[in-house]
Specification:
Blueprint lengths: L1 H33 L1 H7 L5 E8 L9 H7 L4 E3 L5 E3 L2 E7 L4 E6 L23 E5 L3 E6 L6 H4 L6 E7 L3 E7 L5 E8 L2 E8 L3 E8 L2 H9 L5 E5 L7 H6 E17 L8 H10 L10 E2 L24 H11 L5 E7 L4 H24 L13 E7 L8 E7 L7 H4 L13 H10 L5 H18 L2 E14 L4
Parallel strand pairs: 1-12, 1-13, 16-17, 16-18
Antiparallel strand pairs: 2-3, 4-5, 5-7, 6-7, 8-9, 10-11, 11-12, 13-19, 14-18, 14-19, 15-19
Helix pairs in contact: 7-8, 8-9, 11-12
Amino acid sequence: MQSLHVTRWYIQAFWHKYKRVILASVILGVILVWFFPTIIRLIPKQQQVRYIGRVGMYNWIDIPDDIQAKVSSGLTALDETGEPVPVLTERWTVEEDGQAFRFLIKDDLKWQDGKDFTTQDVNYNFTDVQTVATEDTILFRLQDAYAPFPAVVAQPLFRQVRKTRFGLISENEIIGLGEYRVTDLRYQNTYIKQLVIENNRERLVYRFYPSEEDAINAFRLGKVDVLEGLNNLNSFTQDEQNLYQIEEDMNFHQYVALFFNTADVNLSKEVRQALHYAAHKPGPDDLKLRALSPIPPTSWAYNSTEEIDPFSYDLGKAVELYRSVNPAQPLQISLDAPVALFDEAEAIAKDWKALGEATKADCEADPSDDEPGCDRFLIEPQVRSLRDLNDFQAALIAREVPADPDQYSWWHSTQASNISRYQNPRVDKLLEDARKEISQQRRKILYFEFQRYLVEDVPAMFMYYQPEYIIERKEMI
């Protein structure tokens, strides 16, 4: 009993002597635990930091796919041919004649903040799609059969969590499932100005600019060390290019094409074919790669057979076709283009004018007694700044390539996004059947046929895929 009394006396004496130190230690410990995540972020890390410039004005939902893929994953991903492969899902099955897709979710998946990933976290927010989730599967039931659906769920999934820092600052934190985590997101007005993502090895600081000129100026001023996605190097002198490390690739996610308004009575199929043959397109020795159809050569559905007419430059064939049209008067055609494609539009207009002159000369060399004057074969093109894709004769534009070869929204006669107003019942049927067909091999056959008929009808002149450049400062040795 006396020993307990002595022990208590020592404890009391210790407390009276060191109580301030003890209390301060407890308070400091609570603060450290409470603000540990913030403190960890403030501790310098041994990471490589890269400042990357991109051209484009984005919100989070439409930020470039390659950046989103670093931060998170979808149920599937698309391989280099555009075919969906499992990522967050072990596998999927197609049910109810293509109107339902059931995905088996992988075990032990976690969000970047350590929270378990469950089927309840699959938040694509589809309209007109019934979603039924169990513990390990999620079923999507569609109103109609839609074969490309596994490609749709390649879109990465995210959570947004409201975080409080130091008890004062409240902010949205974006949580993903990928290797890189979002650590900073800054907006200017409604668009992202800067995005920072990082993993244990590197910190990537993306800075976004409204134009290539702005991005290049930022690069020259040292605000970024890398420029990604440049369409050309025309803004850099050869001496400048020698100072930098340049990587070239081909962008198969976008093509440039000249779209015709097929509802214009002066632009019959034969006229469009003649104009196509008369226009110079990139050849094997050019930097730009020729596009032959709306489906890129990297796709599993690309028709690489000789069924597709390349419409290579052939003035003789163009003259023959245009003369067979037997127009009543010269063709006046407006060619609209954005500023970036204005020079190319001028070159095409020059080719078309040359077609008119060559056809007139052919007519004069071999006149027909029952034909009026040969001046009616002249072509008078006018290049204008692009105004309205709902009201044009011809428009030279760049267009994004969808992940799946489904082209229904662009070429089906019922679709408002069919800007060329193209109508072909056979093509409509091919597009309808292809998006419902579950067998990829049968879908491939349908898309082969679709490309053949579409290219022959020339609702658009498919021109080229652009090279894409990454330019970076060379490391100093």
